[in-house]
Amino acid sequence: MRQSQLFYKTLKRAPKDEESINSQLLIRAGFIYKEMAGVWSFLPLGLRVLRKIEKIIREEMEKIGAQEILMSVLQPRFLWEETGRWSKEIGKVMYKTQEGKKETGLGPTHEEMITDIVRKSIKSWQDLPLYLYQIQNKFRKEPRAKSGLLRCREFGMKDLYSFHSSEEDFRKYYDTVKKAYFRIFKRCGLDSILTEASGAGFTKEITHEFQVLADGGEDRIIYCPKHHFSQNKEIAKLKTGDKCPICQGVLKEEKSIEAGNIFPLETKFSKQMSAFFTDRDGKKKLIVMGCYGLGVSRIIGVIVEVHHDQFGIIWPKEVAPFQIHLIPIELSSPRVGKDSEKLYRDLQKENLEILYDDRKNVFPGEKLVEADLIGLPIRIVISERTLKRDCVEVKERKKKEVKLVKRGHLLQFLKSNIKLNYV
Amino acid sequence: MRQSQLFYKTLKRAPKDEESINSQLLIRAGFIYKEMAGVWSFLPLGLRVLRKIEKIIREEMEKIGAQEILMSVLQPRFLWEETGRWSKEIGKVMYKTQEGKKETGLGPTHEEMITDIVRKSIKSWQDLPLYLYQIQNKFRKEPRAKSGLLRCREFGMKDLYSFHSSEEDFRKYYDTVKKAYFRIFKRCGLDSILTEASGAGFTKEITHEFQVLADGGEDRIIYCPKHHFSQNKEIAKLKTGDKCPICQGVLKEEKSIEAGNIFPLETKFSKQMSAFFTDRDGKKKLIVMGCYGLGVSRIIGVIVEVHHDQFGIIWPKEVAPFQIHLIPIELSSPRVGKDSEKLYRDLQKENLEILYDDRKNVFPGEKLVEADLIGLPIRIVISERTLKRDCVEVKERKKKEVKLVKRGHLLQFLKSNIKLNYV
């Protein structure tokens, strides 16, 4: 894409009231726009990142047999009365609205709705297991919305729900989802740590969180080389230097961000909402359920908290809005103009995603500073000086070194040295 | 996809309270689930159709230079106070919710929000024109929600907004969008008619609607061979047999559905919200705006209203959830089983989207009745009888004739006779 056409605006400084690294950088680089505390709009660059993450999630969900659906945001009160959650637990953070005499809520989560859909479709053990997910905006009242994309009132979420004929079958899938989550985070450039946590009103069982170590995190995890814990009440009192309750190893404490959580729901919802199936033995039994959340927009915030430096964002390859930033210097020179246009077309033919800085009235220094702020993985600079040697300059955003590469070797260089993912 | 794995359930009869053809058929065929009046969830088959339509829209938006963004659903009251619409006009159909002292609305449309974003980014005539769109769920109070996907409280919408330095530049783009809309509807299998309408509180100017003729429509259009009109007040009194006010031709009246609308906003919003740019002459001027709506989920309803018969839905090729329904009859026969599996794999290799009815315990008649209800464009039946002649049966959903095609010629036949779109 031609940068002169791209709708974005960079800022030298972040607005004063932005305290988090992710909101500061994402605002300054023109990825997001703040509508109010905890409510953000995604500008073209930000939306491209969001779509990349959604694509990764969809691919990994498909691998574990999950089918995508899309439930409504508006949820009828009567469904939430069935579980008693309308006025307690998560119902308290639900935004509510009214039309005539009817009260509806804005979905903070969808257990009631999905259980209702499934109980009307599932008859026998042959219809199970069943894995359904959606990617959709969720809404939660949030008095402490102040960490950019990490804690929002409206946020993108992937929620997966699984339905099983037995606890054993559920446990197997629960492990399958764990592995898929690790793959998703890895592809997003994040090392995630699986921790135990309490059930947050969903279940009395131990649930699991995927935590990412980050200085900007609001959570803390406590760990020894073999075990990780997070907000589980039982271990909440532990601190650095204490002994691990399992292996007696020495514990350390670090700040982290919760990027996903998975819950065994057992038969909590199927019982309250009468979701049965007929088993092999002809008996009517309650469906065993699990639910698995992933903060899609939050992941963007986590990535920026983890991958940045003093100059800007450093996007991991697979989630970057574009892979390559092509920057001609001295674009007024006819030769630079002609050769950079040709390079832009040639790289596009290779199905690479290029942001082409075709702006003529911008100083070279300004272009490079802005490129660092936006943070695409690879920067290619083309100028009179490089062209004299029939070269271009290639620099990875995450590295310091700049390499001069012959134009004829550029594609091969990108493929072999940088292991570029083709789109 | 294997039909045994697909989450869907067909019904012999539609629920009694469903009056519209589109909701009756979409519910019966397992595409959508009703959450409450005017609020629907999309099951896997329905979501696939929704995604196909979104894909068409994105491709056509890109062709006319529009950039995709994603604004929040939650909208702050103070923006709507700037235009005075919080408590009048469209603000009256806005769902509102509260957190502490703060009131927010659920976006019924996004003029205020986009104008706010743009006024902070646009400085000079060089930043214009600018075309921004999003695809997102909108929310409107709707006391008459009763026509399936045609009139909803929550619905998918594509809203495009254009920003110009002059009325003349706006007019050009307005015509460009018109053409893009015709292409979108055509690709969705719909013949649309451009009609004049009143501004619905957005503008005092004449606006335009894209109407699709359908018996299930709630609108009416009045037309002679050369001109079309819809709800414009001036011509609302005209009826069949009257003379066209422009060419004196004889008018006819038919039922229709509004599938899109486009509005010249002039400087209504930029004036109320102080959205300026500096022109070539150095003078500060108001940005000229246009907005362009398209009911994404509604289009699904329109397609079904137009394309169906007594047996079920007849999906146009480009929006069908799958292109081919592969149906083995007598799947218990080892030969049918083996050969249909092979055919399924071979067709998949050609990047065709196949729904493969691999269910063993379902009677042939039931499979065929269900296939007609679901309505994929091409049905391929494979059975002992066809295999004896080394053939399969090919039938287009929209045609009556069944053709016996040699297995070796199948791909060629599909390509040349049915002009299959590859995905």
Automatic annotation (TrEMBL), chains A, B:
Q: Which Gene3D superfamilies match?
A: Anticodon-binding domain (3.40.50.800), Bira Bifunctional Protein, Domain 2 (3.30.930.10)
Give me the reactions it catalyses: tRNA(Pro) + L-proline + ATP = L-prolyl-tRNA(Pro) + AMP + diphosphate
Q: What is its EC number?
A: 6.1.1.15
Does ATP-binding count among this protein's keywords?
A: yes
Q: Which UniProt keywords apply?
A: Aminoacyl-tRNA synthetase, ATP-binding, Ligase, Nucleotide-binding, Protein biosynthesis
**GO cellular component annotations, sorted alphabetically?**
cytosol
Asked if the keyword Nucleotide-binding belongs to this entry, the reply reads: yes
Enzyme class label = ligase
Please name the GO terms that the record assigns under molecular function.
Answer: ATP binding; proline-tRNA ligase activity
Q: Where are the transmembrane segments?
A: none
Q: Where is the Aminoacyl-transfer RNA synthetases class-II family profile domain?
A: 46-316
Q: Which GO terms describe its biological process?
A: prolyl-tRNA aminoacylation
Protein name as annotated: Proline--tRNA ligase
